[in-house]
């Protein structure tokens, strides 16, 4: 299942940038994070420019600048799983990644060739609930129906080889089907982002789109204004598979989250988290964690996804140990004992 993602990661890590980064030790890397006399310097690796993770990364950077006069912040575009390699090779101090990537990296599972032992978690950022969206016109009422009736399902499944896309494979397998089975039944799998799927669903070129998404997802709200769509529930078995293989958590998309969701829908969520490395000092991680926590009201104004962060959720982290700097702050404010 992870073979294709492994190939993608190998390609990334073989690029000139990654060869330069991965060849460096902590002392040789470009990392210059520091504190004292207003000289806090921080680099965060996130997602592509203009995307949600870019907004999140820039938002965190602003909290640092607001609380540390003279601080220098750099946002570095990146990619989910690859950001862990970027941080581990000291090309960035922090990375925005999925909980699935954290699990795979720290346990040394594919696509990572070995355990990323220096990986540490810092803060929960937001949940990405899994959405199995189909159009009303498709006639599909459940995922089981796709399997039992061998429906030629045509769907977008997010960017190929990403942890988000791989979640679809796990869900479908738990229902006894796969991309290959769907294609054998006359369906099609399109590796395009949900945000770029609206027109094709509206024009009936796609039956639906499946992927973890921030909630409520703006593209789905927009799509529902002119195209009747529905959100299908995820079985307990599929949720358990996601917990085991993706470090996911059971989640309920509440009635009213979208205009088309009239009752609670069970699913799972993959978390987006902030990570760092043991090479980054306790002091730097402490200061960044403190800046975020003390500026939560500001972060809430930056993007609604930040509203997932609360006193109860910010330390709800899995996959790798908590960084000592973050742990120190959370204990100081009474979040951890």
Automatic annotation (TrEMBL):
Highest taxon above the source species: Bacteria
Signal peptide as annotated in the record: 1-19
Keyword field: Signal
InterPro entries: TRAP_TAXI
SUPFAM superfamilies to which the protein is assigned, alphabetical: Periplasmic binding protein-like II
Alphabetical list of PANTHER family matching this protein: SLL1037 PROTEIN (PTHR42941)
UniProt name for this protein: C4-dicarboxylate ABC transporter substrate-binding protein
